[in-house]
Design a protein that fits this description.
Helices cover about 15% and strands about 35% of the residues. It is α+β, with helices and mostly antiparallel strands. Strand 11 and strand 12 form a beta hairpin.
Length: about 725
């Protein structure tokens, strides 16, 4: 949920369209559906940009022509996938592998422990509550009966301070929109407190449990719910027992409609902290309201949208912040809000060689998580910044959690790696000891899989890390799947997925390249892969593929690539630039039209990473790598199975629709170039388990076919 408008001259053709269809592929025995090709042209900065498939931007739910195109494409794709011999084998094995108990990290309030649990094959995780740390859990919310297709999910949730109420959200069909509801924890009964038009919002209870703060957008115009840009987000307070129409406005910036506002209440309940953003960058303004003083006005303490300010906690009026101000790898500072006027910063924990990933106050200590070459290290500090050692982790991987209140003597965290399912630990702050709280049992032996980290050199000499995962005994060259993201300051840390085991146990290799654009090495790593530097992202990824081939991990026609969202853009771009390097590609929910991304839903936020299509310098960079605009015929492309969903209102499906239509209109060789379009599925969040199994079985079977993998049943 990270976060202008390009005014172009559009020359519209007459409403008639020419019918085109790609030739039948000699290797697939099918033809693509005929797709109307228009003559729409945008002229930008003297460049005439053809956009023949503009009509595919229309909402599939309201445009019968787009709906018919989707049905035709899915018919062709489904028929082809049904011919793949490994699909049923993968599906059966994935069903076994995913069928294990999974827990979320507990959240403690009022002496109660709230957590999610999936028994294995449930489509959605269930919310439980325990009355003691080792007590019996009881079901609080089970979303699995909310819809017949399992696509309605429990979204965000938060218990009140006394643990007697729970505010939560419902996500239907993968959309980013949320409906907010309130539950009585003791009785399990619903309260009459529904709140609508919530998106990209935190939830924050008042200390006395009288109500909660939230962020919402204005109600969209009729028929524009899933496509209109998201503007004028504002913070409201909902008092229990009153209608949403009575909710008072707490904070808004109507003169700056592109700004979004998140909200949280400090542990002591005395301060409301509002964090304002305008894009996806970690550049915030922070405004506080003294809740202990009736009628107190908002006070903006950090102005200008220049730096990151993440609240670690407070002790009275002394606030602790994680910031990148004068520290590209971040540090911890303190401010005292008791003094009027501009706040002064006091350094508590200075910048380190490692990247500070987050911090919080628990049990009177600062618990800080760092990334050391993309692996977690958790350190303890006294509140004055004095080091007190580290939290002993069970291995090399990723640790997350460590939430709790400033005076709570316990906290919980999860630990995972590529071969280690997420295990939940309880950490005793006083003793510094960790103990297992929940550990899954899986249908494979994690000890049979090896995780290694190598460093390779990119085109410009930059040293880039990459994780490589294999089953013991797998030797190269072998069918290999290379994954990356490369954007928005997001780090690709080691994490477990049962779906990957199904690929690995067939003798495949899985690699994750920690390319620039992410946050693995702080602000310089992010800056090195965005805006005018975006080509570095593609160069880093291409260099990873060349390394895997050059060092014998994989061979000719054995390398598949995969990425989602910004990673889908990555796959689309590198396939255009180096189609010879890859045997198969899985671009998923990708941003494929870099000249119009900012015109839909959350797309306007992404200008921080991509730039403004309406600015000439940015336009020329974007146009040069935009996947939709850079498909060139006369070259052999890898096999491509693109994916999107009809209710994706993060990256609207028109991106993938247009990209697919362009692929299928070109002479790109004999391999198939298909699209899978899911129904009642969004950008990924809330996707039901059965849909994940079906999709992954198709993905693995597709790339197995085109990387030469022989898929065999697993005993």
């Amino acid at each position: 949920m990270r976060r202008s408008l390009a005014l172009t001259l559009t020359v519209l053709a007459a409403p008639a369209f020419a019918q085109t269809s790609a030739p039948t592929s000699p290797m697939t025995s099918f033809s693509y559906p005929a797709t109307e090709r228009g003559t729409t042209i945008d002229e930008q900065f003297g460049v005439k940009v053809a956009d023949p498939y503009r009509w595919l931007e229309n909402d599939v739910r309201s445009d019968p022509k787009v709906a018919a195109w989707v049905a035709d494409e899915n018919k062709v794709t489904d028929a082809y996938l049904a011919t793949l011999p490994g699909r049923d084998i993968f599906k059966a094995r994935l069903t076994q592998l995913i069928n294990y108990e999974r827990f979320g990290t507990p959240f403690k309030k009022g002496g109660r422990y709230f957590y999610t649990r999936n028994s294995g094959l449930q489509n959605q995780a269930v919310l439980y509550v325990r009355d003691s740390v080792g007590g019996e859990g009881r079901v609080l919310i089970d979303p699995n009966g909310w819809s017949k297709d399992g696509a309605t999910a429990l979204g965000e949730w938060l218990p009140s301070e006394d643990g007697k109420r729970l505010v939560y959200t419902i996500q239907d069909g993968g959309t980013d929109w949320r409906t907010v509801k309130v539950l009585d924890v003791d009785t399990g009964k619903m309260l009459d407190d529904d709140v609508e038009w919530v998106k990209f919002s935190g939830l924050a209870w008042a200390k006395d449990g009288s109500g909660f703060y939230y962020s919402r957008f204005p109600e969209p115009a009729e028929g524009k719910k899933f496509q209109s840009t998201n503007e004028n987000q504002a913070v409201y307070f909902h008092k229990l027992g009153t209608p949403q129409s009575a909710d008072p406005l707490v904070y808004a910036t109507p003169d700056q409609p592109k700004r979004g506002h998140g909200v949280q209440v400090t542990d002591d309940g005395k301060w409301l902290v509002i964090t304002t953003t305008e894009g996806t960058d970690n550049r915030y303004e922070v405004t506080v309201i003294d809740l202990a003083t009736p009628g107190a006005k908002p006070r903006t303490i950090f102005k200008g949208l220049e730096n990151q300010w993440s609240l670690a906690g407070n002790v009275g009026s002394k606030f602790y912040w994680v910031t990148n101000k004068d520290a590209p790898r971040l540090r911890i500072v303190a401010t005292d809000l008791s003094a009027p006027g501009d706040v002064a910063l006091t350094e508590v924990v200075p910048q380190d060689k490692a990247v500070l990933d987050g911090a919080g106050i628990v049990g009177g200590k600062l618990i800080a998580s760092y990334l050391v070459d993309v692996k977690s290290e958790v350190r303890r500090y006294a509140l004055d910044g004095k080091p007190e050692g580290t939290v002993a982790l069970p291995g090399i991987g990723s640790a997350g959690g460590f939430g709790g209140e400033a005076d709570d003597p316990e906290t919980f965290y999860s630990f995972t790696s590529y071969n280690t399912p997420s295990t939940i630990y309880r950490y005793d702050v006083a003793t510094g000891k960790s103990s297992v709280w929940a550990q899954p049992k899986v249908a494979f032996d994690p000890a049979n899989y090896v995780v290694s980290q190598i460093f390779y050199t990119s085109k410009d000499g930059t040293r880039v890390p990459m994780f490589i995962v294999r089953k013991k005994g797998t030797s190269g060259p072998a069918p290999t799947l290379l994954y990356a993201y490369g954007g928005f300051n997001i780090s690709m840390e080691p994490a477990f997925s049962a779906t990957r085991i199904a690929w690995l146990e067939q003798g495949g290799v899985y690699a994750v390249a920690n390319i620039r654009g992410g946050g693995e090495y702080g602000k310089p790593w992010h800056d090195g892969g965005r805006l005018a530097n975006k080509q570095n992202v593609f160069d880093d990824f291409i260099a990873a593929g060349e390394y895997l081939k050059g060092h014998g991990y994989t061979g000719k026609d054995q390398l598949a690539v995969m990425g989602g969202s910004n990673g889908g853009l990555l796959i689309g771009a590198v396939v255009n630039q180096r189609p010879d390097l890859f045997a198969a590609a899985l671009p998923q929910v990708g941003v494929m039209d870099m000249l119009r991304f900012d015109r839909f839903t959350a797309g306007r936020y992404w200008v921080d990473d991509y730039g403004y299509p309406s600015k000439e310098a940015d336009f020329r960079v974007l146009y040069k790598y935009s996947p939709y605009h850079n498909i060139r015929g006369g070259r052999a492309y890898p096999a491509i199975l693109a994916a999107t969903a009809d209710t994706d209102d993060r990256v609207v499906p028109g991106h993938t629709f247009k990209y697919t239509a362009m692929l299928q209109s070109m002479d790109l060789g004999p391999k198939p170039h298909l699209v899978r379009i899911e129904t009642r599925a969004g950008h990924g969040s809330g996707k039901p388990t059965d849909k994940i199994i079906d999709e992954t079985a198709s993905d693995w079977a597709f790339i197995a076919k085109w990387t030469g993998m022989t898929v065999k049943p697993v005993n």
